[in-house]
Amino acid sequence: MKKEIDAIMAVKDLPIGFTAKPGSSLEFKTGDWRSQRPKLDREKCIYCGFCYIYCPDGVYQDMGKDEKYYKPDFDYCKGCGICAHECPKKCIEMVLEEV
Amino acid sequence: MAKPIGLEVSLAVAEAVKLCDTDVVAAYPITPQTHIVEHLSELVANGELDAAYIPVESEQSAMSSCIGSSAAGARTFTATSSQGLALMNEMLFIAPPLRLPIVMAIANRALSAPINIWNDHSDIMSIRDVGWLALFAETGQEALDMTILGFKIAEDHRVSLPITINLDGFTLSHFIEPVLLPTKEEVAKFLPPFKPLVKLDIANPISMGLLGGPESYTEARKVTDDILVASKPVVIEAFNDFAKVFGREYKVIESYRTEGADTILVMMGSIAETAMTAIDELWDAGKKVGVVRIRLWRPFPVEEFKEAIKGAKNLAVIDRAISMGVPDAPVALEVKSLLYNEKVRPFISNYVVGLGGRDVTRDDFKYISGRAEEFSTSPQTQYELVGVLE
């Protein structure tokens, strides 16, 4: 019987000493850990920036004075829900991540 | 021809570290290892050794500092014993996969409880699976030579793994023995300057000590074991090069009067000196008994060991530690395991001697030789603790 292999790198291809070159986190998307995602109701949003300040991973991006809201980067948002909890207008809802 | 000088073995090890032009010593004193690092601190303080001496607050910090300094590209040495080695434990697992060639002398000592500062092999046996190379010295000269060899072997790019140099606490560490102290020029001829295989370098930055999840941990462990196993020929090569420069020959497995021997005693460390004297007396009395001493404990020299014990009817494996909860002590467990699939196997019996500094005498080896023969007719079911008062 052939065994299915889950490895991402073969023994012979591992870097010596299990090291990494800098900047590799840009290639390593961590957003797929998420089970819930924040959903913003822009009607209620007052552009206060609490979500931007409280986000522990810094995934919120300021969309500027014209757009007047903050947008999460789903490549890195882990769905912790801190933004929804801290939002003073309760305009962020955590919805189940559809896979 | 150099003349031997009388030197305490701990000091001889420290002198070897000096001759190797070590860059960093990070250590915490613990009996019976203290004299090694104490002498090194003197050598650094009086300018004989140009090194950073880091007097840390614990052995956990000592090994952490060693990992850091080795990663920064410094030739790194430490020494410990017993409880100190136990306190290092979590850091000891980290150095091998990171490929850091730290050299550590262990003045082997028992572990508590009860509190005991004397010699056995309980400390080294607790770290036999972590990925460090391990050499055992029999004499003061060997302890000195193995320290120099330790740097040579560990720093070779085909190895680049940490190594322990084991010397029996007190029995070796505190004895004054005649030793030939090599010159700095001889050592420089044998040991090239340290060129790290992996290194923290601002000009070429890397991250070390990364996360390896279920998708990569298996491969990372495998590569470490592969490199450890593949280091054996490098050890043998280093022994041969050492003989050319210094004239002293070492083998990964040493044999004494095994030719035509019915029974072979297997052991590690300084007790082999006594054992050889004992079996000389046995041969004089018509008993055919040999000694096989394991000098290279990790990686285990499987082929050389099998070759060394060939033809023996009985093997008596003599341990210096108990593996609690199983019928065999550590060395016997391994010897039995590697001979299990052989077509022709000797009868193997196991003896534990010299726990917590109890004397091991010529009579013990004579007694064991006799027992090994008895066990060829009715196999032993559990290790025998020689000289225990029940």
The main sheet of chain B orders its strands as 3-2-4-5-7-6-12
**Structural class label of chain A:** alpha+beta
Strand content of chain B: 15-25%
User: How far is it from the N-terminal to the C-terminal residue of chain B, by CA?
Assistant: 53 Å
Question: How is the quaternary structure best described?
Answer: heterodimer
Q: Return the structural class of chain B.
A: alpha/beta
Number of domains of chain B: 2
Task: Tell me how many strands of chain A there are.
Answer: 4
Taking the sheet with the most strands of chain B, its summary is: 7 strands, mixed
Largest sheet of chain A: 2 strands, antiparallel
Q: Helix and strand string of chain A, N-terminal first? A: EHEHEHE
Rg from Cα of chain B: 21 Å
Q: Strands across the major sheet of chain A, in which order? A: 1-4
- In helices, the fraction of residues of chain B equals 25-40%
What attributes characterize this protein structure?
heterodimer; A: 99 residues; alpha+beta; Alpha-Beta Plaits; two-stranded antiparallel sheet; 4 strands; B: 390 residues; alpha/beta; Rossmann fold; 2 domains; 15 strands; 18% strand
